[in-house]
Structures are given as structure tokens and as C-alpha cells.
Design a protein that fits this description.
homodimer; alpha/beta; Rossmann fold; globular; EC 2.5.1.17 (chains A, B)
Chain lengths: ~170, ~170
């Protein structure tokens, strides 16, 4: 099954994290490949790294739009490691019941990964494992092959009133 | 902060679970009050009950629309315990950094809890703790007082193609 969490609203990543917890509770083996997320910054990282049956990989920890002094070229280079990991999982025998590809939609949007090649690998992987892809702006080609697509739609957000991101809620 | 996860799409509960994991990772104390969810059925229950700093309460485990031989009257009676727990948390000094009220929107929709009284308690609680309320059909009165509202919007769902709920994904 191929699941996509997209949209401008909150909940794409937390829903994937919740899905990991649900899957682990059912005895699934899980792999999380995270992009653009600084280490030991997000609260969930501290809990997830302690859980059994979960392999956690983090690549391209800094996105050039968020962190100064990171070039598009550097981000693109680092995303190659994530692409290679995805390629390994797609081409080798099934290792995980669930694979979460966090913020891969952003890597595709920003052309840090080649769209057709990445989507081909995701499709291949989803034929043996459940796969969740998160990030705003999911490409239409990915939506077309997905089984379940949810748009997290922002109805109301405190950022629009100038409230800053809060520890424990946004990270 | 008062957060509402609503809409017909997937991800309302899993996003709340992910939020719990994030909050626990930041050292928050968390309380989860769950409605209409059978024990040891959902994968997340097996993981959450093992985590520190999380108090987990489950009331009205059977919803009459899902489980035969449960009357509306019985569900309504059992929801009183959840209302009383909410009342206790709202009226006593702050005990938790985050309180998750799972499927409370459904209890309000089905009139198992009195709407105005419940929303007053939620508002009071959200003045000292972060509160997340989940469930489709969030009442307008709750949306009006919330800080952050996300609609999980179904773009594509395999149920519409006749696929059954899958272990590790839907429960």
C-alpha cells in the first residue's frame, strides 16, 4: 500500500509518526528515512530512536531554505544518499513492513531527487512494503499511483496570528 | 493552545499519536483520553502504554454504530466518565503539558456529551495545557475557540475501491 500525506496544514509528519507507532504495536518492522530535519531537534526523534524494530536514517539534515550557508548543490548531493537508500530497499528482498519517506515530496519539488526515477523506486518498494511519503506539494505522478492520499488542510493556524513555533507541538 | 484534528480523511488519530510522541520527546507530561476504541486492538495502544510520562484513559470502548448490542443509552452513560475526567483536569491545578481528547468530536456529534458544557471545559483546560481534540465533524463552536484546526481531507482512499482495513495501517 502506498500512502501520501500532503497539503499545507499541520499533521503530515505527526500522522506518519503515529502510523509508525501503530505499526510497531502490531509487530511490524519499520524503516524511517527522514530528510531536512536537524538531529535531536524534533521531540519524536528522541523517542523513536529508543524503540525496537525501527531503523531510523536521517539525510540532508539542513534544507537550504531554512538554514543559512547550505547551498542547493549541497542539499542535492546529500539527497543522493537518501535516494541510494531507497534504491537499496526497492531492489533488495523485503526487509520492512512499513517504510516512511519523510519530506520526500519536498526533495522532489526542489529537484534534489530526479522525479521519475524516485517515483519508480517508490512504486517498486510499495509492491512489497507499505510506504508512506510525506511533505507538501506531492507531485501528481505520485498521487496517481498512490492507494491512499490525505491532504492536511489548514483551516486555522496560529502562525497566521504571529505565534511562534512551540516546543513539543511544532518540533 | 487548543488544536483540532477533524475531517473525513485519514490521519486525525495518528497525527495526535505522533504529537504525543513529539511532546514526550521534549519532556512533556501527557494525558490521553480515548473514546470508542477497543482495548489492545489498535497497535498504538500497545506502545503508548509502555511509555513514561503518559497517562492513558479509555472510556466508552464500544460505539453503538460499530458494535452490535451496545445501546445509545449505554454509550452515553459511559461517556459520563470521560466528561468527569475532563472536568477534573479542567478544574484542578495543571497536571499535564498536553491532553489529547480522542474522538471527543464524535461524542459531541452523537450527543453523548452536552456540547456547551464540554466545550467550556475544553476551553478552560486549554488555558493551562495544550489540548488536542480529534474526530470528524468538529462542532463550529469548538473550531471558533481553537488556535489550530486541520481538516484531514480524503483525496483518495482504498476503502472506496472495496479494500478492507489493514492491520498496522488502520488499527
Amino acid at each position: 500500500m502506498l500512502i501520501v500525506n500532503t497539503g499545507e496544514g499541520k499533521g503530515k509528519t505527526t500522522a506518519a509518526i503515529g502510523q509508525i507507532i501503530r505499526a510497531l504495536g502490531q509487530g511490524f518492522s519499520v524503516c524511517l528515512i527522514q530528510l531536512f530535519k536537524g538531529e535531536s531537534f524534533y521531540g519524536e526523534q528522541k523517542i523513536l530512536t529508543k524503540l525496537d524494530n525501527l531503523d531510523f536514517f536521517s539525510f540532508a539534515k539542513e534544507h537550504p531554505y531554512c538554514i543559512e550557508n547550505v547551498t542547493l548543490q549541497e542539499a542535492s548531493e546529500k539527497c543522493k544518499d537518501a535516494f541510494n537508500k531507497l534504491s537499496e530497499l526497492s531492489n533488495e528482498p523485503k526487509k520492512y513492513d512499513l517504510v516512511v519517506l519523510e519530506e520526500f515530496n519536498i526533495a522532489l519539488r526542489d529537484k534534489f531527487m530526479e522525479k521519475n526515477a524516485t517515483i519508480d523506486l517508490i512504486k517498486k518498494l510499495s509492491e512489497k512494503s507499505n510506504v508512506i511519503v510525506t511533505g507538501r506539494g506531492a507531485p501528481q505522478e505520485l498521487i496517481a499511483i498512490a492507494d491512499l492520499v490525505t491532504e492536511m488542510k489548514e483551516i486555522k493556524h496560529p502562525y497566521n496570528k504571529g505565534v511562534k513555533a512551540q516546543r513539543g507541538i511544532e518540533f
